[in-house]
Amino acid sequence: MAAVETVLGQARAKGRSALVTYVTAGIRADWLDLLTVMIDAGADAVEIGLPFSDPMLDGPVIQQASSAAISRGTTIPGILAQLREVSGLGTPLIAMGYAHHACTRGLRRYCHELADCGVSGTIIPDLPVSEADEYLAEARDAGLDAILMVTPATPDQQMQVIAERSRGFLYVMSVMNTTGRTYERDDDARWAVAARSRKHSARPVIIGFGIDTPERAAAAVTYADGVIVASALMRRVMDGAPSTEVGRCVREIRAAIDNAQ
Amino acid sequence: MGDPGPAGRFGSMGGRFVPEALIPACEQVEEAFRRAWADAGFRTELTHMLSSYAGRPTPVTVADRLSDALGVSVLLKREDLAHTGSHKINNVAGQVLLAQRMGKTAVIAETGAGQHGVATATVAAHLGLGCTVFMGEKDMARQELNVFRMELLGATVIPVTSGSRTLKDATSEALRHWVTTVDSTHYCIGSALGPHPYPWMVREFQRVIGDEARAQCAELLPGAVPDAVVACVGGGSNAAGTFAGFTATTARLIGTEAAGGAALSNGRRGVLHGFMSSFLQDEHGQIAEASSISAGLDYPGIGPEHAYLAEIGRAEYHSVTDAEAVAAVELCAQTEGILCALESAHALAWVRRAARDGELTAGSTVLVTLSGRGDKDVSVLRELIRGRR
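Output (structure tokens, whole complex):
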């Protein structure tokens, strides 16, 4: 258990930058293939997006991916059942779901259901640390790594608190924007937040939000222990790319961050 | 209806369910509001603005002919007479003054019917702040006049094309935008909802309705307090402000939801837009789309304090259909010469039904908050009423 922390910690110990990818559960019939393709292409962990009708921290790509998944009849019990079938992949899976689903199912049930079907980590972007006491306790009880976020707006003192309470890794929301929006002018500030986060975290610091190309991922790992790539991959999926092409994108990012070291 | 404390909880409702990125901004708003609300200087400035600019106090009209028609004694709290035509200005005046105090140079807002957007554009123009309003595409079509009013006032109106293209999605988009502009911009939420401190702050800025009405009722009614106090509820700001003046009295408090947006009557506990409350949901737990003729009530949730007042039984909430609301607009227009907003008509429609069904006993006294005027609804009503003929 607590596989996210173990796997990413080992990667860091070996000097390997971590690559965390993302797939919206149920986005299309072959979404589990996307998951395995990403793992085969070198993802160290994969976030499974649980589709929500109102994903407030997501930009247009993941909003559309969520609503496409919901339109296909994707439900949380359905996702859990499918995940149970593929458990034992050897690569940690991290559920990325909004507070609404976690709170309506009940935090205890939510965490245990995820753990029971082989998920090892959880991210709830709209459950800030100030609201998270019960969630963190239930996640611990279920053996899930509850990953918390820091942002450019987070003051140092608060960053320290969040870093201490986060498990698995510390998620750096590197830019004040929704997912999938990249502006080159933000890059310096982006790396500065990662560098600042590292001072507070004993765990790996992984940078996400707007990491869209192999080049940007390579730049990021100079400042962080790894990257999270989500919208850039989901954009291709939404455009109808076959899973092989998504795998190729993941391999390119893998190669770029490996070569950056 | 007191201070919900640092966690912003009304019982188990409310809270601050926003991404970590917005936590410092919410804390800043809370700190600024706490300081301002305890500062006599701020209170004086706000009161002066409400009286010299926004037209307060608004009168209470004894609605004799409407009372005769209904068989109960109706008093109307006339928020339709406030500047910009609704109660929304009360909250906006407070929040834009606060934004100025916080050194913000711009405000953003979400709007459904357009009344909150117009009020925000108005006060922003008055105080010289930039203003951007997020509005669902569907609402922009049915409230075209208000879109033009906002633009005339110098605001930028951004159409929201995601989801149901109404107030729910406009609110999500405004929150997303706030993440990107939080240093320079205050998010002026228009209803008694959102992350702490908004539900509380908006209720406090709206309590002027209830405080005035309480004093006005004391002058007008032999018993000083009406038997029932009724207000429409979307997110619930005019109702929260009205109830705040009467929670300590014996008056029955009644909130009226649109049948297609009845989050309390038909919803379940959930979390959206930063707060825990009751929300319309589908069988799989996704937030459902509301559907009402009145854009201002077209919201799948309800402010957390209303969910709490319902839970503890201090207020009751009933739903009213589109047809009942339209009939109430006509009745009010033809008996009182007041063209009220479709939103406000939901409150009147409940009174009419309750008086008919004996839910309100004959001759009882009822204060109804007319939250806004109906000019914005004329084209919707015209099509509907002409179609009926």
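Chain A has a mean pLDDT of 95.
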